[in-house]
Amino acid sequence: MEKQRTSNQRTKPNKKSNQRIDYTILTVVIILALLSIGMIFSTTYLQFSTGSLTPTIMQSVWYIIGFGLLAITMRIDRQTLYDFAVVSYFIGIILLILVLFFYDRELAITNGAKSWFTIGPISFQPSEIMKIAYILLMGRLVHQYNEDARIDGLEAMHRKERMRYDFSFLMKLLSWTLPPLLLVILQNDLGTTLVFLVMFIGVVFVSGITWHIITPAFLIGIFIAVFVLLLVIYNRDILEFFGFQSYQFARIDSWLNPFGNTANESYQLAQSLKAIGSGGIIGKGIGNFEVYVPVRESDMIFATIGENFGFIGGALVILLYFILIYQMIAVSYQTHDAFYATIVAGIVMMLTFHIVENIGMSVGLLPLTGIPLPFISMGGTSLVNNMLSVGIILSIEYHEHSTKEELEKSWIIRGVRHLNRLVPQQVMKKI
């Protein structure tokens, strides 16, 4: 009888190991979605006597679209995603070129960035879609590097030979990073430029490149950053020659002295600090505002959270983000695939930078850059980018338990494979 019980215990399936969806990630995203809709309702309807429900409805619609795209992306298998990396990259580059000529003139006057298409009531930012395409391509390149390294016997190479090998690959990564980076710089979008740099750093760190190359490159990067900061303080003419705009300097000035010119450059940050401070420990409750903060439904939405829900509410939001990022990193540890691991690293770096920069600028720790708070700030393109990211993360665990028959029957996978045919096979094999 005891032997029978033991046998049953051994053959009993482990539900957790067969679980195809990471419900922790999904639950956090749903909570953030509800918080987003609630905060936008609070700022655009309850705050004003003439408030409108349109922004709340639009955000809800974008979330419906986002969850639909999440469900679709989650069902795309590794090989199809691997092939789609090249197609999506070139589509993203084309869109980044087009927006330089057909950008929304009114938005460019407002925020200084030529990074938006506007079709009727809908605005679209191609650089958000390019972030995902870039991460996918980096994953493909790192996977190919690891395969080539295994074939070429990288571990047995002499140190100098290994450094030449890895330096060549670093230059390859950089060559595919520069096109989107330069196109975003031409759009005068400093925030997105920084996001691409951060994603590139994350990819390099997980790529397998020797530390004999990464360490000096990292130190050079720090030196350049410090040098630029010194130029901002002591000699801005050089930076203006390289394309820095006056509004970007104004944002840095307001960061260094948030209450120095509250009638102009520092007004937004000063109001954000007042709003968060007025929320105290537990906040004033949803819809209760005493401080006006410009664009508090998008860039400065953390000020809304701080004023409505206080320190406790802000801390809980940060905790939710911590859980989300932690679970994503856990997924990367479960996979031994360089393609997937690089994708997770890129997404984690992208989301983490968005979170740290947005909250940091809202509380005065970092300069204003216009970077939205993931899953909470109002904005369709940013939200779609975030939901696609989560869908890709979920697809890793989902397809660990997929059969070949399931993949062949999927209309989603067949559709993406048709898109992959847009790029000639000769080009695909070279990347």
From TrEMBL:
<feature type="transmembrane region" description="Helical">
    <location>
        <begin position="115"/>
        <end position="137"/>
    </location>
</feature>
<protein>
    <submittedName>
        <fullName>Rod shape determining protein RodA</fullName>
    </submittedName>
</protein>
<keyword id="KW-0133">Cell shape</keyword>
<feature type="transmembrane region" description="Helical">
    <location>
        <begin position="167"/>
        <end position="186"/>
    </location>
</feature>
<feature type="transmembrane region" description="Helical">
    <location>
        <begin position="84"/>
        <end position="103"/>
    </location>
</feature>
<feature type="transmembrane region" description="Helical">
    <location>
        <begin position="338"/>
        <end position="356"/>
    </location>
</feature>
<dbReference type="GO" id="GO:0032153">
    <property type="term" value="C:cell division site"/>
</dbReference>
<dbReference type="InterPro" id="IPR001182">
    <property type="entry name" value="FtsW/RodA"/>
</dbReference>
<dbReference type="GO" id="GO:0015648">
    <property type="term" value="F:lipid-linked peptidoglycan transporter activity"/>
</dbReference>
<feature type="transmembrane region" description="Helical">
    <location>
        <begin position="53"/>
        <end position="72"/>
    </location>
</feature>
<dbReference type="GO" id="GO:0051301">
    <property type="term" value="P:cell division"/>
</dbReference>
<feature type="transmembrane region" description="Helical">
    <location>
        <begin position="192"/>
        <end position="210"/>
    </location>
</feature>
<feature type="transmembrane region" description="Helical">
    <location>
        <begin position="217"/>
        <end position="234"/>
    </location>
</feature>
<dbReference type="Pfam" id="PF01098">
    <property type="entry name" value="FTSW_RODA_SPOVE"/>
</dbReference>
<dbReference type="GO" id="GO:0008360">
    <property type="term" value="P:regulation of cell shape"/>
</dbReference>
<feature type="transmembrane region" description="Helical">
    <location>
        <begin position="21"/>
        <end position="41"/>
    </location>
</feature>
<feature type="transmembrane region" description="Helical">
    <location>
        <begin position="376"/>
        <end position="396"/>
    </location>
</feature>
<keyword id="KW-0812">Transmembrane</keyword>
<feature type="transmembrane region" description="Helical">
    <location>
        <begin position="309"/>
        <end position="326"/>
    </location>
</feature>
<keyword id="KW-0472">Membrane</keyword>
<keyword id="KW-1133">Transmembrane helix</keyword>
<dbReference type="GO" id="GO:0005886">
    <property type="term" value="C:plasma membrane"/>
</dbReference>
